[in-house]
Fold this sequence. Notes:
Blueprint: H1 5-10, H2 17-25, E1 33-36, H3 41-56, E2 61-67, H4 74-87, E3 91-96, H5 108-127, E4 131-133, H6 138-150, H7 155-158, E5 164-167, E6 170-173, H8 181-190, H9 207-217, H10 222-250, E7 263-268, H11 277-290, H12 298-308, E8 319-320, E9 325-330, E10 333-338, H13 349-358, E11 361-363, E12 370-372, E13 380-381, H14 382-388, H15 393-396, E14 401-404, E15 407-411, E16 415-416, E17 418-419
Parallel strand pairs: 1-2, 1-4, 2-3, 4-6
Antiparallel strand pairs: 5-6, 7-10, 8-9, 9-10, 11-14, 12-13, 12-17, 14-15, 15-16
Amino acid sequence: MLYDFAIMKHHEFFNTMNDMIHATSSIDLSIPTAVAVSGGVDSMCLLHLLAQYAHEQNQVLWVFHIHHDLQTVADEWQTLVHDTAQRLNVSFDTQRLDATTRVPAQSTEEWARRGRYDALAKLAQQHGVRQIALAHHQDDQIETYLLQTERGAGARGRSAMPRQLERHGVVWLRPWLDVPKSVIVDYANQHDIAYLDDPSNNDERFSRNAIRARLTQAPLNIRERRVILDAIHTAQREQTEHSAWAQSILAQHQAVHRADIGECGRLRGIDLAGYLPEQATILLREWMAQMGWRMPSRAAVNELLKQLSQPTLNRQMCWRHPDGWGVTQLKNNWIAAQLLPSGEWFLTEPLRQRIQAERLTVHPRKGGETFKLAANRPSISLKHAYQMYEIAPMLRGQLPLLYASECLVHVVGVGDVLDAR
Length: 421
């Protein structure tokens, strides 16, 4: 959703406390709602206001807190949020992230962000919550634009954060994108709202923190803020046009993907080499957005196109996303999938339950395995079966073989088999 820039100019950046309060009161609390609260000043103020409105309207409000398990003070944040929710008489729940789930190529910053949103969505599902309010503000929006611009992002990245987004079955609301940080801090001081500062915000090894430190040392004036916000508005309009065009193209090539083996998308019969480089980039970014991926840098997308759009492509090749995703080509398909760390298996929950119930053992392929797909069919090799079922080479190493004693009974991605020995 695009915000009304004309209104924003009229209010000189929507920078009064009354405007902040009005933006919060516009949230429809008759829709089951939660507020994501870290314990910082922004989310604690949003909790304070929403709790007040929930009681006035006799509506239920949930407070969701995510424990990142990265710092010793994280327990203190959880305690503060829990106690505040209890004092304000609103419902509270929390989920703890597992730091061991971060893949080697993934930054701590990105792992925490992705894990936080996944955990919030799970909490929403558990409690029947349909929308979650987030306390991102105008300074966050400016930082996002500068961060994406430095990464060479396209219109999608330069559009910064949307005011409203539906993903994972939840509507995410950001009512304060026109509210400067200073107004929020003033509100906290006026109402004696307790909050905690995150010491990691001072760690300039994180890209966003480095930008924030730069802006603290040399704050933007009103004209500079207006230029950036105007650029965001322009990028949002551009992105809307790009997205509509890309969706119309992609819709012609969407194919059913194999979620049971880790795939998250397939495009059939699309020839990206037939588009201009900028058009191919827009198509790939839209496809990634549809799958919920973080947008890679322009250089990374260019490398993807370089690797996978060549006529002499080695079909064993795949492009790897920093967050553990992969893209490859198989026949006339572009396939996107989750790539697991070496030694881990992709197993659906029904398969895990079957392994336990039937006491099956899990083995990697050793080479030379043969089996029958049915008693009246000839024996085939494992490689032949993978080709028959269009399983991309990049996925085969994470799909195990299941044995009952010494007998091969199931090939993940292929199905039940008869051992040909």
